[in-house]
Amino acid sequence: MSQDGIDLETSVGYLLKEASAALRAAMEDVLRPLGMTVTHYSCLELLAQRPGLSGAELARGAFVTRQSMHVLLQALERDGFVTRPAEPAVGKALPARLTAEGRRRLDAASAAVRGVEVRMLAGMDAADQEHALRCLRSMVGSLRDQRASEDR
Amino acid sequence: MSQDGIDLETSVGYLLKEASAALRAAMEDVLRPLGMTVTHYSCLELLAQRPGLSGAELARGAFVTRQSMHVLLQALERDGFVTRPAEPAVGKALPARLTAEGRRRLDAASAAVRGVEVRMLAGMDAADQEHALRCLRSMVGSLRDQRASEDR
DNA sequence: TCCAGTGTGTCAGAATCCTGACATGAGTCA
DNA sequence: TGACTCATGTCAGGATTCTGACACACTGGA
Q: What residue stretches are annotated with the HTH marR-type domain (chains A, B) (predicted)?
């Protein structure tokens, strides 16, 4: 078998993907009864914490392209969960904001997602969680540096 | 702002998604010059470590549906990287195996991906990595238990 | 023996997301 | 002022993935 390759059982990268997939599946399970998708929820949650974000900024925060966020925002606006000015006040960016209805929908979804996260962290004490946060931030930072150094 | 919602800066779930997205982007960057996609690579790596896996098993290991893995396997077989018997020896499962050419392709890709993982873990010592592995395994386990208890 | 349950391969259609491209507005610098 | 770069919104097309469905094969219990 020529011991090269990456051992899946001890690969941080594989575990990372596995955990992310499991989290996404669990979120889909609790969001489906609410008629929401994960990207749906991510967009609303971002807007709640940082009102006035533009479509491109929301896309970066939700890890999708701005084209995908564009169609999502159109749907959210059509359904009355989000409002955007008809014309940009400055530049081209259209700052989006939650409507009262959007906030209501988000509150239900947010509670469900928080439940998922709590259950995900069961079995880990506060020190473990703090350490996990530091490790994840370190990984993100290292990957970003590496990517930037390849000028792209 | 009514302090509900999930603080994105301190949410393990958000960081998890961010790290996973960054890892995937970095892998795409190094695999693109080799003419491979991440799912492509995942399938080959899985087969190298566990020869004879069926399409459904590969799908679970690569976190896609078995329908998606089905079309991927057709392409890999057409390109001569993977072989499968024309008829199942037992049951319906068709055990897949890497060809010599597939193994060659994988070796190059595997080295590139290992480089990404090494750079991702830069700044973390052995103890940190071991701790991160335990945390990730704990999260996966908790999420799976929760999902199983809802019988689906 | 029969039969329900589970796992697998496969086909067809739909939904989702991305790549490519274009035009516009703002900032920078010579 | 004008050229250049960068970020944004938007449209069109294509690629990828998923959902739904069907048929078949093994297993275990009634």
A: 9-141
Report the distance from CA of residue A87 to the C1' of nucleotide D3 in Å, as an integer: 28
pLDDT band of A55, cuts 50, 70, 90: very high
CATH architecture of the domain B12-120 equals: Orthogonal Bundle (1.10)
* Residue A39: closest C-alpha in chain B: B17
pLDDT band, residue B91 (cuts 50/70/90): confident
CATH assignment of A27-120, among 1.20.1540.10, 3.90.1150.10, 2.60.120.10, 1.10.10.10: 1.10.10.10
Asked whether residue A94's C-beta has any atom of DNA/RNA strand D within 7 A, the reply is: yes
Residue B74 beta carbon within 7 A of nucleic strand D:
no
Check whether B149 has a pLDDT greater than 90: no
CA closest to C1' of C17 belongs to A68
Average pLDDT, chain A: 90
